[in-house]
Amino acid sequence: MRFTGKVVVITGGSRGIGLGIASRFLREGASVCLAANEDKVLEAATALATQAPDGAKVIGAVVDVTDRAQVKALYARVAAELGEVDVSVQNAGVITIARLEDLSEAEWDKVMDVNTKGVFLCCQEAAVRMRAAGKKGRLINTASGQARQGFVFTPHYAASKFGVVGITQSLAKELAKTGITVNAFCPGIITTDMWAYNDEAWGKLLGNYQPGELMAEWVEGIPMGRAGTGEDVAGLVSFLASDDAAYITGQTINVDGGMFMS
Known about the structure:
The protein is an alpha/beta fold. The protein has helices at residues 16-27, 40-49, 68-81, 105-133, 155-175, 193-207, 213-220, 230-241; strands spanning 7-11, 31-36, 58-62, 87-90, 138-142, 181-187, 252-255. The chain folds into two domains: 7-188 and 229-255, Rossmann fold (3-Layer(aba) Sandwich); 191-227, no CATH class. Helix content is 46%, strand content 14%. A seven-stranded parallel β-sheet has the order 3-2-1-4-5-6-7, sandwiched between helices. The two termini are 32 Å apart.
């Protein structure tokens, strides 16, 4: 198993893409910390631990990634219980959908804080610890199809995800000579709780669609003809974390069935 002895931190790890990534790393021998800003992450970690191979551990942590003190405490706990981090996946994210005139400043601030500031704070702390430990670590950030092209009713979300790409490129250049790589990925339509909300909220604003109708319409336009899964995303992330990707940094890779080809 290629990640035996490695330590992986995944924010937004209680469900959806994050949990799919965690499952993949665990199967490949890594010890994993699931972090999220909800108690559900503790249940998810307990359930995932039942699948752990010999030598691998799973812990759960309730963390607000917008709070520097909590982020620092997260990585310190991981070091104490699992070992210093080798791979940090910045996946925590939120979205709201509203017409321009209805989009509140509070919504803007929350989305930018979680999706962009949270990515930076976790990358910052993980990188500091990786360098101190002499590790050629991996920082992997969740962007979005909206880091390629903004969409109606979500200017704050698009801005937050374009920001993730900027952080990724900047840190990749700064850390390149240390052997720490920094990459991002852009998931398209993935079967998650977030996309259930997207389908409902966008559907109401774009034409009074019934639940499931808008997403089905959009999926028809995907060249591969289906929505993605957490496993689809996890395959890319595990590659970017592997030794095979040691010469890849500063890249943002689509995993979307061909929605965006760039």
